[in-house]
Model the fold of this input.
Amino acid sequence: MTRALLIDTDPGIDDAVAIALALASPEVNVIGITTVGGNSGLAATTRNALRLLEFFGRSDIPVASGYDEPYGRAKMETGYEPVHGNDGLAGVDLPEPTTKAVSTDAPAFLADKIRNSPYPVTLIAIGPLTNIAHLVDKHPDVIPMIERFVIMGGAARTGNVTPVAEFNIWHDPEAAKRVFASGINTVMVGLDVTHSVKTHEHLWGWLKDGSKFGNVFDHILTSYTDFYSMFYGERMTHQHDALAMAEAIWPNMMELEPAFIDVECQGDLTTGMTVTDTRLRNDVKPNGYVAWSIDGDEFHTRLMSALAALASTVG
Ligand code: BDR
Ligand code: CA
Done:
């Protein structure tokens, strides 16, 4: 049976790839997208969600915008524009959207979609967890109705923004702490798995075909690759969000281990760290799963075939 999918996102280049993967996968039916501040401010991430959907010919999917300000602290100037560009999509040439976000805010929109879905709902969050923390606070009744909750965020081992913190958690650690404590069973797809998969430039070379779809994706992926190559000296990227999306679309594509996950919000050196306890001693009960690995070749095969399918509809 098709599962309903709700996507909370801060597009974001790898978010755009993840959204494309979901739209092209018949296993899930995307019933709504909510936007959050993260890779860029909320106005930019909402604009990007709308114009991407229009570009994909899927403006039938409603977009609700959420929170710009983090749940638990003042917004920081992240200085991470080099990753996704000032507009969140590396200045890509995509027209302004002709559609608008719905008037409902993201938590109310998610709650309504979850309550009224005739199909089991998977919720995936591929940005900071701000909207989801507010969902937990304002609409706690829907939390047990979510069949699966997958996030791209966190790191049991090594971080990216700091040695121990991953960006989506670090941006709003109190929100992540609230979500992990909410009783929602979370599949944490963090850097442990996303850093293990390298998406080399040659894998998507076929997007340099001069088509409309190819031009947009070649532009954003080239920019993302330029950024990564400064650090790694290799023409590759980590497709964090599309990897998490793969686990949302194809449950258990990853090796998962039960864990009790909590978030450090105060440490001078450790703020934003996802403290991941897989020992589960002394009656500690897991509140989710940590993802450790995935078959990278299989992921790339599925991702490229999804992008090709979407490309054939966009032109
Ligand atoms: C995460 O941070 C963002 O830059 C990406 O979109 C991804 O969601 C990776 O740390
Ligand atoms: Ca993201």
User: Anything to note?
Assistant: The chain has one domain: 3-314.
